[in-house]
Amino acid sequence: MAANMIRAYYSRGCDSSWIFSKYKISQTQDYNKYLNKFNVIHFDAAAFLNRSKDVDTTVGLIDQTLLGGLKNEFPQIINDSVSDTFSALIRIYENTQMQFVIIIDEWDCMIREKMNHAVLIEDYLKFLSMLFKSSESQDFLALGYMTGILPVKKYGSHSALNMFAEYSMTDQDIFEKYTGFTEDALKIYMDMDFDGLRADVVQMPGGGRIRVNTRSFQNDMQTFRTKDDVLTLLIHLGYLAYDFECREAFIPNKEIIEELENTILHKTGGDSRTQVRQGSPIGHKPDQGKAVSAGVGRLQRGDRACGCEL
User: Fold this and answer.
1) What is the rounded CA–CA span in Å between residue 122 and residue 115?
2) pLDDT in tens, 212-253
3) Are 147 and 102 in contact (CB under 8 A)?
4) Which of the chain's termini has less CB crowding within 10 Å, N or C?
5) Where are the alpha helices (DSSP H) in the chain?
6) Which pTM value belongs to this model?
7) Phi/psi at 144 (5° precision)
8) How many whole angstroms separate alpha carbon 73 and alpha carbon 94?
């Protein structure tokens, strides 16, 4: 999701102002300075690994696929004498003075899944170093952004890609006001007090569960007719977990419990602390059954936020 937003914001292949104009980013000083001003390369490393018939040729497949895209976009600059992506990026920048934003999803998949393939790892780390760490990349590269699980560190004989700033989902302090569950978001749904929704939700911080009929949900964020519709939306958004076997919703973690308590206290004038802490369970205990939180589906390679990036 974040990678797609970055691509949409920076890509010169589209006008994405309509996406961002209603958000706070549009009020920042440099918003128009960088909006739709760069060439963008965005690829999923795992997709190439899965496509490769011989894993040791994966990096070559990535390189030649990107090179083919650059030739299509810059036919007057890149001819058949250019044999690799790195050389193509250098030549394009020399001729246009336009920099690139390079985005890689699941950058670490080869290291995680194919660590025993020495040739593959050696070629891949060399490829990344040329894109992000070489002296030439200081000219053609405006921004590098990679998503993955493993930390960026020294692997094998290659030095670490230490030009990256790492942001971990295990330390979300800098993200919490932009993402996830907020008190304001919960208040909106608590106001929709369908069928005694608020009274049922009061029980949840104490371990309570609410039986939910998810079939009535209309798969949008506007159509709400019953308590079940609101609860199903909160499940889809990840605010509540769902036990498929018992068909019950419950609160998945401490952070959401705290937000829920704050919202309930706000709604009741501060007299519900005891009720919240000691809410009686409804149905099964939270440790019974399998809890599954809904997630957001990954955009497949080729689905574009806008424009015609490589």
Assistant:
1) 10
2) 988 877 766 666 788 888 888 888 777 788 888 888 988 877
3) no
4) N
5) 2-10, 17-20, 31-34, 45-51, 58-73, 85-96, 109-113, 118-132, 137-140, 183-191, 197-202, 227-236, 254-268, 273-277
6) 0.62
7) -115, 135
8) 15
| Residue where the block lists tokens 């076997």 | 245
> Which residues face 103 on adjacent strands?
42, 145
Nearest-angstrom CA–CA distance, 154 and 130:
15
Other Cβ atoms closer than 10 A to 67: 20
- Asked whether the beta carbons of 104 and 43 are under 8 A apart, the reply is yes
> Which residue type sits at 236?
H
- In whole angstroms, give the CA distance from residue 7 to residue 16: 10
Q: DSSP string covering 107-148, please? A: TTHHHHH-TT-HHHHHHHHHHHHHHHTSTTHHHHEEEEEE--
Residue whose C-alpha is closest to residue 101's, from 17, 32, 35, 41? 41
Cα torsion 150, 152, 155, 161 to 10°: value is 150
Does residue 210 come out as left (phi exceeding 0), alpha (psi in the -120 to 50 range) or beta?
A: beta
Distance from C-alpha of 240 to C-alpha of 292, rounded to nearest angstrom: 9
What residues does 100 pair with on adjacent strands?
Answer: 39, 141
Alpha-carbon torsion, ordered 124, 163, 101, 302, to 10 deg = 40
Q: 52 and 61 in contact (C-beta within 8 Å)?
A: yes
User: What values do phi and psi take at 149, rounded to 5?
Assistant: -105, -45
Counted residue by residue, the chain has a size of 310
Give the other-Cβ count within 10 Å of 1's Cβ: 10
Residue type, 119: V
Q: What is the pLDDT of residues 53-109, one digit of tens each?
A: 899 999 999 999 999 999 999 999 999 999 999 999 999 999 999 999 999 999 999
Order of strands across the sheet that contains 241-243: 210-211, 248-250, 241-243, 291-292
